[in-house]
Amino acid sequence: METQIKTQSTVEAHSEMRTKCLVYTRVMGYHRPVESFNIGKKGEHQQRTHFDEKREK
């Protein structure tokens, strides 16, 4: 718990230096930012399983 509080205070102290990170995903042949999805599509995106080629060998 104490580590979480330290991390949170560090993040808050440096919040002015942070930049927003956009996550894109491929949908129907083109790339699209996840933040533009509706609530149902965002939930579907969170439930996806990601393929890791290194682990599958």
TrEMBL record:
Region annotation Disordered: where it falls in the sequence: 36-57
Q: Any one Gene Ontology biological process term?
A: DNA replication
A family per Pfam: NRDD
Q: Name one GO molecular function term.
A: ribonucleoside-triphosphate reductase (thioredoxin) activity
Q: Where is the composition biased (Basic and acidic residues)?
A: 41-57
Source taxon at top rank: Bacteria
What is this protein identified as? Uncharacterized protein
Q: Which organism is it from?
A: Marivirga aurantiaca
